[in-house]
Task: inverse folding
């Protein structure tokens, strides 16, 4: 008697389309939003001769000051070899230098140069109109609200960095 058997429910098929209620939807939407934002920021950085991976390291150096390479790995979410290549690139471009750490000759700290700071500031100027274009579809006040929500999502109260 098939009438007594409840209909089998099929789980929602995950997409990143508007209205998807699957448990994966938020992650997929965040990934798509990241790809879109990263593409726009790459466009801003290209004329300056660097890529987003370079800029990610510069952000850490501006924020933290001289930083040992293993801490750059953790701060950027990259791997050791990737950070080494980025730091090599930044050194070749005169944007960062490696210096010995007092007390441990094996450890090298990466430090942004004055030229690196100039490029960092120029990147912000170049990115401003592109960032505005990125949120052009949002209503007044929504870009700030989105930033607030994403900040709270990425940095929950009490979470350790």
Result:
């Amino acid at each position: 008697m098939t009438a007594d058997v409840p209909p089998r429910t099929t789980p929602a098929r995950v997409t990143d389309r508007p209205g998807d209620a699957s448990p994966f939807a938020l992650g997929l939407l965040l990934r798509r939003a990241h790809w879109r934002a990263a593409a726009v920021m790459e466009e801003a950085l290209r004329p300056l001769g660097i890529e987003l991976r370079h800029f990610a390291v510069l952000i850490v150096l501006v924020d933290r000051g001289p930083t040992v390479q293993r801490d750059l790995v953790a701060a950027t979410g990259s791997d050791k070899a990737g950070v080494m290549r980025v730091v090599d690139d930044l050194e070749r471009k005169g944007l960062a230098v490696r210096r010995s750490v007092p007390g441990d000759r094996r450890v090298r700290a990466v430090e942004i140069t004055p030229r690196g700071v100039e490029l960092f500031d120029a990147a912000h100027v170049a990115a401003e109109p592109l960032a505005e274009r990125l949120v052009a579809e949002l209503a007044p006040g929504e870009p700030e609200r989105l930033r607030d929500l994403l900040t709270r999502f990425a940095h929950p109260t009490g979470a350790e960095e």
In short: The mean pLDDT is 89. The radius of gyration is 22 Å.
